[in-house]
Write a structure and sequence with these properties.
The structure holds 2 protein chains of 2 kinds. Chain A has 9 helices and 13 strands. In chain A, a hairpin with a 2-residue loop joins strand 4 and strand 5. The longest helix of chain A has 16 residues. Chain A is globular. By secondary structure, chain B is of the alpha/beta class. Helices cover 27% and strands 26% of the residues of chain B. In chain B, the strands form 2 sheets. A 6-stranded mixed sheet of chain B has the order 6-7-8-3-9-10, with helices on both faces. A 4-stranded antiparallel sheet of chain B has the order 2-1-4-5, covered by helices on one side. The chains are: A alpha/beta, B alpha/beta. Chains A and B meet through helix 6 and helix 8 of A and helix 4, helix 5 and helix 6 of B.
Chain lengths: 311, 209
């Protein structure tokens, strides 16, 4: 459904009045997503995960330059076609419930999303009612304002808004941050239900535990690129991570040892530099001389795709 | 010892009390965890302990005395949304030295980079601002540290790095920490005592196996 090929994003930034420098926060991204599939993107905070979502929705800041292609159902996404797709075919579940309009009753907000998604007035009303039933919200809730909802209800409203017009690709950007475990479970179950109905979902999160509970594949981000893509069999734990960064991320989880070996920080690549060496090399205990001079490609290793020369 | 004694609090806009007769104490060098569902007053308790809110009834004592009204507050609160706790018009280096001149060892341990110092908060990511806030709150006069979902927006590796710095301060300076989180696995890793915040019974201590 979604195919991202060789995506690169560069930012130009002035460091004094006359000189410009470029940053390359996202590079060499290849990813595809088919109907019925949830792909989780996990990795460093500030490592470019949200930028990927913003690139898909074409809401990058104006000083960003994008190279490579993003295709949705074999059609290239650019600033013209995205207008037709955004809100209809592709929708976003935002990070926080503060994205609801505080002054409009929630039923009306869901209905408005349906209208923007191209439904007629009558259809939108019916779709809204159906969405409320489906997400287990009483009809009376429609006439409440966001501040009258509990956090869990507000989150179901956000999911309703994103799906009411029948979007087939859902991008969820850190939807579970700061929620208590019960609400996280409810949210993940909703996402799974939507995927089982044939929608595709991109779940951006730093919660590896949540990711492995619902996702079909996990893509690990580090230093602005994908370092590993793992398939997850039903109900099994991710224990077969190969890339040293993904392993470090796994071992840092409170349940798996809470350990860290030195720093995990990658520096963003600068646009003018040729890719030289692996970006994880400074923190890697298996680094060899060739890791410093050769930039690794994402290659198959066992069941995973890994960007490591030692894989 | 940081003590909260029989705290009652009702928000002015509401008739229902959020906190009813809550007492908790944190010894120097102790890490206490607080766990419980959202919207039940965990953050309100954190703000009361740090002196941001005055409770309707009950008192907060720092080493047996009431909180100083002027000067450095020995109880430092690290808020959940750190990007709202910094002045957007200040450069990072000014934010960092707001409480006391930054300690080089600390900034290195938190992986704060030299290049961030000349930037404004909106040019850093949430996780990077969080590190700045931790460094700012760990001034030499800080005795107690209230960590309200401090690492919930960070990846697992950054979470470990920040907690290592905090636990080192517990060890070395006998800092007392109250850690509020939804992540039970994290609390089990870092806390000696964990309380469950329940609506009806207030704070219940939880046994750690």
């Amino acid at each position: 459904m979604l195919t991202v090929k060789d995506l690169n994003i560069t930012f130009s930034r002035y460091y004094n009045s006359f000189s410009q420098t470029t940053l390359n926060p996202l590079h060499n991204i290849d990813l595809n997503l088919s109907a019925g599939e949830i792909v989780a993107i996990v990795g460093e905070s500030g490592g470019g995960k949200s930028l990927l979502a913003h690139a898909i929705l074409d809401i990058l800041p104006t000083n960003a330059e994008l190279k490579g292609t993003i295709q949705f159902r074999e059609k290239l996404i650019d600033s013209n076609t995205i207008r037709q797709l955004r809100g209809r075919e592709i929708s976003l579940i935002p990070q926080s419930v503060s994205y609801l309009n505080p002054l409009i009753r929630v039923g009306k907000q869901v209905c408005r999303a349906a209208r923007i998604g191209g439904l007629t007035k009558e259809e939108a009303r019916m779709a809204t009612d159906a969405a409320f039933t489906r997400f287990n919200l009483a009809p009376e809730v429609q006439s409440l304002f966001p501040f009258q909802l509990s956090g869990g209800m507000a989150q179901r409203i956000l999911v309703a808004i994103a799906t009411v017009a029948g979007a087939s690709l859902i991008v969820a950007d850190e939807p579970t941050t700061g929620l208590d475990p019960d609400r996280v479970t409810v949210f993940l179950d909703l996402l799974r239900m939507l995927a089982d109905e044939g929608k595709a979902a991109l779940l951006i999160t730093h919660d590896l535990g949540a990711a492995q509970r619902v996702a079909d594949r996990i893509a690990v981000f580090h230093g602005g690129t994908l370092v590993e893509v793992v398939k997850i069999a039903d109900g099994s734990e991710v224990d077969n991570l190969v890339h040293p960064y993904s392993r470090a991320l796994w071992e840092a989880l409170p349940d798996n040892g809470f350990s860290t070996n030195g720093s995990s920080f990658s520096s963003h690549r600068h646009g003018n530099d040729e890719p030289l060496g692996c970006l994880f090399v400074k923190n890697c205990d298996r680094a060899e001389h060739r890791c410093r001079i050769t930039y690794p490609d994402l290659v198959p290793a066992g069941n995973n795709m890994v960007r490591c020369l030692n894989a | 010892m940081l003590e909260a004694k029989n705290i009652h609090y009702t928000y002015p806009s509401s008739s229902e009390p959020v906190l009813k007769d809550i007492s908790i104490s944190i010894q120097p060098g102790q890490v206490v965890g607080l766990y419980g569902p959202s919207g039940k007053g965990k953050t309100t308790l954190a703000r009361i302990l740090a002196g941001y809110i005055v409770p309707n009834r009950g008192q907060i004592l720092v080493n047996g005395e009431s909180m100083p009204e002027k000067g450095y507050n020995p109880v430092q609160l690290l808020q959940q949304h750190s990007e709202l706790a910094v002045n957007p018009r200040w450069k990072v280096k000014d934010i960092l030295s707001e409480s006391s001149p930054p300690n080089n060892k600390l900034t290195t341990a938190l992986h704060i980079k030299e290049s961030w110092l000349q930037r404004y908060p909106h040019e850093l990511s949430g996780g990077e601002i969080q590190r700045i806030c931790v460094a700012r709150a760990l001034g030499s006069e800080t005795r107690y540290f209230i960590a309200d979902e401090t690492t919930s927006m960070l990846d697992a590796i950054a979470q470990v790095q920040i907690w290592k710095v905090l636990l080192a301060a517990v060890e070395k300076n006998k800092l007392g920490i109250l850690a509020i989180s939804h992540d039970h696995a994290l609390l089990k890793q870092v806390c000696g005592t964990i309380y469950f915040f329940s609506e009806n019974d207030g704070l219940c201590p939880e046994k750690i196996a």
